[in-house]
Each structure stands twice: as structure tokens, then as C-alpha cells.
Design a protein that fits this description.
Blueprint: H1 7-10, E1 19-30, E2 34-38, E3 46-49, H2 57-61, E4 68-77, E5 85-96, H3 112-117, H4 119-122, H5 126-149, E6 152-153, E7 159-160, E8 172-173, E9 200-202, H6 207-217, E10 219-227, E11 240-249, H7 253-274, H8 276-291, H9 303-312, E12 316-319, H10 320-328, H11 331-334, H12 351-362, E13 366-372, E14 387-395, E15 399-406, H13 411-421, H14 429-436, E16 442-448, H15 449-457
Parallel strand pairs: 3-5, 6-10, 12-13
Antiparallel strand pairs: 1-2, 1-4, 2-3, 4-5, 7-9, 8-9, 10-11, 11-16, 13-14, 14-15, 15-16
Helix pairs in contact: 5-7, 5-8, 7-9
The structure holds adenosine-5'-triphosphate and manganese (II) ion.
């Protein structure tokens, strides 16, 4: 390891007067004198001051944006504006050069679209450095929240043998030779010859397996990758995303809504408390981006203001039926401004409707519950009025961020729903066992991690909150 101080640890000034060694990447080099160094340990750069007369000209020429340096010198209080301390460089070593003719990241504003094409380098920008540090903090906060509540983390399988979860289109996992797969007598691909002896897919949700653990350990959560082969090219869908799925025995739907609200607020509070420097960068980025937009499209609140607002206010809880009534009587519905006009009870809500409720009508997060059974999954608990005990949490700018339900714990009701919806019972016999042996009321939900990241960072496109996004037509890196 190269012995060095992290920039994060130098900025508090405790080491002023000491000789320090710092390694990092050059952001800018001004007047042949001031080097801005960033090592990613925090957002701030450290200014390294060189007296060019003391250094070899050829060596200084290699100090260009993107180059990696090791500098040694005295840490002193800075006289210049914008930083508290700086290093007066006595020794300088260029560890890795970055040819300025070829290095794509120059100290100017690059578009997010361009940066997506160089996702292997975009982490070196202020914006993406901030996003990845916040992402780490949120991952940590998720585990901290559940650990402190006594939940156990469960790893559910990524390759799944059940394709009946119904949460979305799946990616097949196969080791067969695509050019000449074994065929059955009727000429179809014979998956009994495949690696697992059956058809397998990448998981779309860990819920069903999570339920097995909840009905033994009481309160569990999963936090893993999920895959959906839907061809939806939106700013809120990825083909590979991370999901957090708590599952709790002895919770009804309301308990689960309480947990969801507490959890979301915990994450927001954690980021507000621990990621202030990065949030300031992201807040400013959003404000700058907004200035380019027509007044009507600008966000009504700044990022930090919005986070605080979502922390301090109670979420509105209304039934699906109430939501339909609000939407039916809303201006955009009457004027047919919605792409999908709401006609009757039973309609599936689109993101435009969700956002109307949150952003225009209630102006705060909304939890919708008790949906028509026809538009929800087979495992959701049937209410007396034929709705199911499902809930979605809707957030401003995002729409659905959480989807959950109380699960049907009564064997005969569950079997009936599976038959009605054409879900093969034999394939999910193990799932039915949970209702045959020691069944109990239980509930759970799924939080899309990247949707939460979008909310916390103010990034409009989900491709910018995961290091290497997978979307239709794109699996670079
Ligand atoms: P949507 O209607 O927005 O496509 P969904 O109802 O299909 O979502 P669920 O199956 O309920 O989603 O998944 C639970 C959560 O996972 C969602 O609330 C959302 O936060 C997140 N999620 C779902 N699909 C995606 C995706 N393709 N990319 C990123 N996050 C997703
Ligand atoms: Mn959903």
C-alpha cells in the first residue's frame, strides 16, 4: 500500500504544520501553480500548491486533468478562498498520466447522456462521486435500520426455479447450446437436459422465498438484485435493479404501511444527517438543471427542501376507491389531458395518475391501499369486498416507490385465487406448504432501491443512480 493521508482526514485542519503525503486524481491545474486533487474519500478537493521554478518543466506538463499524482509537502492553512487547508508541494510524482488529447473528461460541463457512454469514468466527476457515496450510505442505512429492529437478512436465490411469481417478464438462464439444443419428440427445446434439469430464470422478486423465512424467523428482509425483461424504456425502469423486501409474520396491512413510512423516513433522515456535503452538490446540480427548463417544468422545491418536507409530513393514506374518485373528478381527466383517461373503478393506475395524486392533489407522499383484485398478484389477501389488501407508496417525481401487501394466509382462498389466475399449483406446492403447516397472517413489501436513490439524489433518470445500468439494448461494461 502507498502510505498516504486521505483528503477527508486532512480538511479538518488538525494536521496543519505536518508533512503529509496525498494521492489523488487531478481535477484542474491552474496558473502552473494550483493543483486541485480529488481522491474520492469526500467531495472536496485538496489544493496542492507547486512552485513551478522548483520543478522540472517536463514533469509539470504531465500534471493534466485526470492524471494520478502522489504529492508530499507541508499542510498549511490556506489564504485563498474556497479551501481551509492546502499542501505546499515539496515532492511530486505522476503515478498515472492522462493524455489531455484523449482523456474524455475535461473540466467543463458534460451532459448526463455523454457521461452514460463513459460510465467507467463518470465516477470521477463531482456529480457521480456524490451519487456513489450516497448510494453506499443508503445501503448501510438499510441494513442498520433492519438490524436495529431485529430483522434478519436473508439471501434469496438469484436463479429461480419458479416462474410463477408474476412480477414481470423473466430472463432465462440456460447452459444449453443455443445452436443445437436437445429437442423433445414434439420438437421443443428439452429443458430436462439443461443444467438444472428444468427451466430456470433470473429472479424478479425474492418475496415468495422471503415468506418461508418470515414464517420461521418472524421478521426478515432481503436486499438483492432483481431482473425484469420488460421492454420498458422509461426513466424509472432498469432490467437489473436492487430491491429490499421485508417480510413480517403477524403484521397486517396497516402495520406494513407503518413500517414502510418509518423505513423511508429513516433513510431520508440518514442521508440528510450523514451525506450533507454530497447532498449540497446534488442540490445545486438539480437547481442548475432546473434553470434550463421552462418555468412550468421546474420542481417546486429544491432537493434538500424536498427531503426535509418528506421527512416532516405524514403520508396521506387513501383507498384505491377514493383515489379513483379524485382522479375521475380531476381537471386533467375531465379535459382528457391524461394519456389514459380514468373511466371506471377497476382501471390500473398509470404513472401519470400516481403523480397527479402526489404532486398536484395532495402535494405529499401518498399510500394507496385496497386495490381491485384483478390488477394485483395472486398472493394478496382478499378483503370482504373483493379488493385485495395491497398497498403502493407513491413519491413525488417518482410515482410508485414501494409495492406491498398482506399475504393470503388461508389455504383455500389462496388455492382458489391461483386457479382463477392460472397459477400452476403443483409448481408452488412448497409455497402452499406454508399455509398447510403453521400458517399465520403476514405482510411485506418491496422497495426499489434505485427509485429511492433517484428520490434522494434528485436524479431524473434511473440510469444515473446505478454504476452500470442495464436497459433494453444496453449491457455495456
Ligand atoms: P412499476 O409499475 O413502476 O413498473 P411494479 O408494480 O412492476 O412497478 P413491483 O413488482 O411492485 O413493481 O416491484 C416493487 C418495487 O420495485 C416497485 O415499487 C419499484 O420501486 C421497484 N421496481 C419495479 N420494477 C422496477 C424496474 N424495472 N426498475 C427499477 N425498479 C423497479
Ligand atoms: Mn407494484
Amino acid at each position: 500500500m502507498i502510505a498516504r493521508e486521505k483528503i477527508r482526514d486532512l480538511l479538518n485542519g488538525e494536521k496543519v504544520g505536518d508533512e503529509v503525503t496525498v494521492c489523488g486524481w487531478v481535477r484542474t491545474f491552474r496558473s502552473n501553480r494550483f493543483i486541485s486533487l480529488n481522491d474520492g474519500t469526500c467531495a472536496a478537493n485538496l489544493q496542492a500548491v507547486v512552485d513551478f521554478e522548483k520543478f522540472d518543466e517536463e514533469q509539470l506538463k504531465k500534471v493534466t486533468t485526470g492524471a494520478c499524482l502522489k504529492v508530499t509537502g507541508t499542510l498549511v492553512e490556506s489564504l485563498g478562498a474556497g479551501q481551509s487547508v492546502e499542501v505546499q508541494v515539496e515532492k511530486l510524482e505522476v503515478i498515472g498520466e492522462a493524455n489531455p488529447e484523449k482523456y474524455p473528461l475535461q473540466p467543463k460541463r458534460h451532459s448526463l447522456e455523454f457521461l452514460r457512454e463513459i460510465a467507467h469514468l463518470r465516477v470521477r466527476t463531482n456529480t457521480f462521486g456524490a451519487i456513489y457515496r450516497v448510494r453506499h450510505a443508503v445501503i448501510y442505512a438499510v441494513h442498520k435500520f433492519f438490524h436495529e429492529k431485529g430483522f434478519y437478512n436473508i439471501h434469496t436465490p438469484i436463479i429461480t426455479g419458479s416462474d410463477a411469481e408474476g412480477a414481470g417478464e423473466m430472463f432465462r438462464v440456460s447452459a444449453l447450446d443455443p445452436k443445437s439444443p436437445p429437442l423433445t419428440e414434439s420438437g421443443e427445446v428439452d429443458f430436462t437436459e439443461d443444467f438444472f434439469g428444468k427451466e430456470t430464470n433470473l429472479t424478479v422478486s425474492g418475496q415468495l422465498e422471503g415468506e418461508t423465512a418470515a414464517l420461521a424467523l418472524s421478521e426478515i428482509y432481503t436486499f438483492g438484485p432483481t431482473f425484469r425483461a420488460e421492454n420498458s424504456n422509461t426513466s424509472r425502469h432498469l432490467a437489473e435493479f436492487w430491491m429490499i423486501e421485508p417480510e413480517m409474520a403477524f403484521y397486517d396491512l396497516e402495520d406494513s404501511m407503518d413500517l414502510a413510512e418509518e423505513f423511508l423516513k429513516y433513510l431520508i433522515n440518514y442521508v440528510l444527517t450523514h451525506c450533507r456535503e454530497d447532498l449540497d452538490i446534488l442540490d445545486k446540480r438539480l437547481a442548475d438543471e432546473d434553470k434550463q427548463k421552462p418555468a412550468l417544468e421546474r420542481s417546486p422545491m429544491g432537493l434538500i427542501e424536498k427531503l426535509q418536507f418528506t421527512l416532516e409530513n405524514e403520508y396521506e393514506r387513501i383507498t384505491y376507491t377514493e383515489a379513483i374518485n379524485i382522479l375521475k373528478n380531476s381537471k386533467p381527466n375531465k379535459k382528457k389531458k391524461f394519456q389514459y383517461v380514468i373511466e371506471d373503478w377497476g382501471a390500473d393506475l398509470q404513472s401519470e395518475h400516481e403523480r397527479y395524486l402526489v404532486e398536484k392533489h395532495f402535494k405529499k407522499p401518498v399510500i394507496l391501499f385496497n386495490y381491485p383484485k384483478e390488477i394485483k398478484a395472486f398472493y394478496m389477501r382478499i378483503n370482504d369486498d373483493d379488493t385485495v389488501a395491497a398497498m403502493d407508496v407513491l413519491f413525488p417525481g417518482i410515482g410508485e416507490i414501494i409495492g406491498g401487501s398482506q399475504r393470503e394466509e388461508r389455504l383455500e382462498y389462496l388455492e382458489k385465487r391461483m386457479d382463477e389466475m392460472g397459477v400452476p399449483r403443483d409448481e408452488l406446492d412448497w409455497y402452499l406448504d406454508l399455509r398447510r403447516f403453521g400458517s399465520a397472517p403476514h405482510s411485506g413489501f418491496g422497495l426499489g432501491f434505485e427509485r429511492m436513490m433517484q428520490f434522494l439524489t434528485g436524479m431524473g433518470n434511473i440510469r444515473d443512480v446505478i454504476p452500470f445500468p442495464r436497459t433494453p439494448g444496453n449491457a455495456e461494461f
